[in-house]
Amino acid sequence: MEQSGAAGPTARRILVVDDEVTIAESVAARLRAEGFTVDLAHDGPGAVAAAATLQPDLVVLDVMLPGFDGLEVCRRIQAERPVPVLMLTARTDETDQLIGLGVGADDYLTKPFSLRVLTARVHALLRRVERAADRGGATIIVGDLRIDVDERRVWRGEVEAQLTPLEFELLARLARRPRVVLARERLLEEVWDWSDAAGTRAVDSHIKALRRKLGADLIRTVHGVGYALEAR
């Protein structure tokens, strides 16, 4: 694990994981210029160890890594502590991207990517986390679904579900307006904090994850439009 310059005691900490050292250092330099503290790892085991030790606020994670791949890294770090993950992939196959989202990544970029776009995505993910913290103090109950916003815990009936940060935010957004159909584009803009028609696939992937964890009947699909929470 390597560390790059910190911007002060309150700087947000980002872990950048990529086995291509030039790319990792370029990303780190750009994020450091934005005021972040940046740590580097270059393989799967090192990334998992660094995430456990450093408790980063966000992880920028390449899919192709030695040791074990980024998908396994994402699974392991999310099992220990939910943290926003921006996944980098050289693969253009949509299936590979959806698998990454399915194991807990919040967003992805395909290589080659613009450092400006990467920085914008990082800021957007962190703004979402900050907004979630500011919205504390409420419990949302819809039918047999209970969401504790302060503790960021979710139950369906008596069974608690373990959600990633973005899954939690997406569920809470739907639960605040139960039975109202919310368009994919609106969810992408309000939950991910960015608008891109291609990103609606990310919404679909996270809806699938919520159904898998909380029940297939929880969220209704309105084809060509979006989704509505239907818990009773």
In short:
By secondary structure, the protein is of the alpha/beta class. The chain contains eight helices and 13 strands. The strands form three sheets. The chain has a six-stranded mixed beta sheet, with helices on both faces.
What is the secondary structure topology, with strand pairs?
Blueprint: E1 2-3, E2 13-17, H1 21-33, E3 37-41, H2 44-54, E4 58-62, H3 70-80, E5 85-89, H4 94-102, E6 107-110, H5 115-134, E7 139-142, E8 145-148, E9 153-156, E10 159-161, H6 165-175, E11 182-183, H7 184-192, H8 200-214, E12 219-222, E13 226-229
Parallel strand pairs: 2-3, 2-4, 4-5, 5-6
Antiparallel strand pairs: 1-3, 7-8, 8-9, 9-10, 11-13, 12-13
Report on this structure:
The chain is of the alpha/beta class. It has helices spanning 21-33, 44-54, 70-80, 94-102, 115-134, 165-175, 184-192, 200-214; strands at 2-3, 13-17, 37-41, 58-62, 85-89, 107-110, 139-142, 145-148, 153-156, 159-161, 182-183, 219-222, 226-229. The strands form three sheets. A six-stranded mixed beta sheet has the order 1-3-2-4-5-6, with helices on both faces. Strand 12 (219-222) and strand 13 form a beta hairpin. Helix 4 packs across helix 8, helix 6 crosses helix 7 (184-192) and helix 6 crosses helix 8 (200-214). The radius of gyration is 17 Å and the shape is globular. The model has no long low-confidence stretch (mean pLDDT 85).
